[in-house]
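Supplementary Text 2. Reproducibility record for the structural model of the 298-residue chain.

All settings were left at their defaults, and a single model was retained for analysis rather than an ensemble. We include the record here because the model underlies the residue-level annotations in Supplementary Table 4.
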Amino acid sequence: MSDLAIRLRGVVKRYGPITAVDGLDLDVPLGTCVGLLGPNGAGKSTTMRLLTAQAIADEGELELLGFRLPEESKQARAQLGVTPQLDNLDVTLTVEQNLLVFAYLYRIGRGERRDAVERALELAKLVDRRDSRVDKLSGGMRRRLLIARALVHRPRLVLLDEPTVGLDPQVRQELWALVDALRSEGTTILMSTHYIEEAQRLADTVLIMSHGKAVAAGTPAELVREHAGDEVLEVYGPPSRLAEVEAEAAGEGLRTRRTGTSVSVLGVESGNGFAPEGERRPANLEDVFVLLTGEEIA
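Retained model, structure tokens:
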């Protein structure tokens, strides 16, 4: 049996003239959390749609839990939990009723459904809201219910598509605790996000996407070390001064990124004495993200 929960090779998905996913390779080992990090339009949600057979690849190979997609998507979905980016809960039902519906759809035995629902409620910390109608829940509670719904049948693999999009930082922390609980149980997770802190906090490994392509992959620490070095020098000033610093850094073989009224010189510790006036700080995953995608942080 393969030790990979997900295996993609050379996957391509086109929508007319637009190539949403362009030659993507992806490995998700069993028992790990892998983060797809990228700006909006990078191809993350399309990748999720391919893995749930909502979209069919034009080229490439896709395997999920040992099943080939799309031919064996039905077998794969039986062992898969999916939390969509858009809330599609039934707002006319209660929290518990939503979970019971999915327990039935996933063919959990009649005698086991109540226990399955209880476990999902406890994991998502929604036991005291079991009788609340969904339209009376806060945004954070609805997100937790979406995840609980995906877990009701004890899936081997969970896909989280932008699980905290649109939520405030406090609620995001609650969702992170829920994902941590899943990881501690050994559940395999593939999570798409454009929040850098989320990827760094939750993912064992990160694959950075841009314009449908994978541009880098590794642990957050490996990505920072490879692309941004240990230290970053922030230099502030007018555009003319920033242009001078960029030229000087390029002459030393150092990478830079421009952010508003400053320029960041990456890996400055290896600059052979290159030290314009500025502020030093440790390199981080945000430096790598902006350097590789050329995008502003969402």
